[in-house]
C-alpha cells in the first residue's frame, strides 16, 4: 500500500498537527440590535467602566460586555462584529495601571544591561517614570514596558522581558 501524498498542502493547520496561535481569550455571541457588518471595539475596565474606541452605531457595548461575563475577568479589550443574526465578540485580557505622569499618551521604557531609555509619544526623553520602572523591575532585570493611555490616569500596560 502506498502512503497518501498530501502534496502542496503539507503545512496547513490540521495536516502537521500544529495548532493555530490563539487570538482571543474569550469569545461570545449576543443578540443585541444592530446591522450586519457593524463593528465595535471597546475596553472593559476593572471598575466597571466601558471605553468605546469606535462608533458603536446602534449597538450597546454594555450588552456585548454582558455576553462576556463569566468567560473573562476585567480588564479586557474586546472587538465585536455584527453577523446577520448575532453579534460575535472576542476579548483579550489586558493589564492596566494608574500612572501619575500626565505628559504624553504612549510610553516605551527599555532597560537593558547597559542603560535605560524612555520614549514618550515616540520621542526620546531624559525624563523618568518611576511607576513604569517598578512595573518592569517586578518582572525582570532587563525589560521593555509599553504603556498606552486609556482614559485619565489609566494606562494599558505591556511588559516583555529582554
Question: What would you note in describing this structure?
Answer:
There is one protein chain. With 162 residues, the protein is mainly beta. The protein has two domains: 26-93, no CATH class; 97-161, no CATH class. The protein contains two helices and eleven strands. The strands form two sheets. A six-stranded antiparallel beta sheet has the order 6-11-10-7-8-9, with helices on one face. A five-stranded antiparallel beta sheet has the order 1-5-4-2-3, covered by helices on one side.
Key traits:
6-stranded antiparallel β-sheet, mainly beta, single chain, elongated, 5-stranded antiparallel β-sheet, 39% strand
Quick structural summary:
With 162 residues, the protein is mainly beta. Helix content is 10%, strand content 39%.
Structural class assignment:
mainly beta
Number of helices: 2
Principal-axis shape equals elongated
Strand content of the residues, in percent?
A: 35-45%
Structural Rg: 21 Å
- Report the mean per-residue pLDDT as an integer: 87
The end-to-end distance, rounded to whole angstroms, is: 51 Å
Low-confidence segments, ≥5 residues, pLDDT <50? Answer: none
Task: Please indicate the count of domains.
Answer: 2
| Percent in helix | under 10%
Amino acid at each position: 500500500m502506498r502512503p497518501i501524498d498530501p502534496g502542496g498542502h503539507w503545512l496547513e493547520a490540521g495536516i502537521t498537527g500544529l495548532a493555530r496561535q490563539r487570538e482571543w481569550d474569550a469569545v461570545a455571541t449576543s443578540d443585541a440590535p444592530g446591522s450586519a457588518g457593524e463593528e465595535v471595539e471597546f475596553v472593559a475596565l476593572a471598575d466597571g467602566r466601558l471605553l468605546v474606541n469606535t462608533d458603536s452605531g446602534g449597538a450597546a457595548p454594555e450588552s456585548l460586555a454582558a455576553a462576556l461575563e463569566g468567560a473573562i475577568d476585567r480588564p479586557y479589550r474586546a472587538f465585536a462584529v455584527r453577523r446577520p443574526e448575532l453579534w460575535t465578540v472576542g476579548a483579550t485580557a489586558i493589564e492596566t495601571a494608574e500612572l501619575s505622569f500626565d505628559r504624553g499618551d504612549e510610553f516605551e521604557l527599555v532597560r537593558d544591561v547597559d542603560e535605560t531609555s524612555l520614549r514618550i509619544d515616540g520621542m526620546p526623553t531624559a525624563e523618568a517614570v518611576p511607576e513604569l520602572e517598578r512595573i518592569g523591575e517586578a518582572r525582570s532585570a532587563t525589560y521593555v514596558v509599553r504603556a498606552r493611555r486609556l482614559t485619565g490616569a489609566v494606562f494599558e500596560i505591556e511588559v516583555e522581558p529582554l
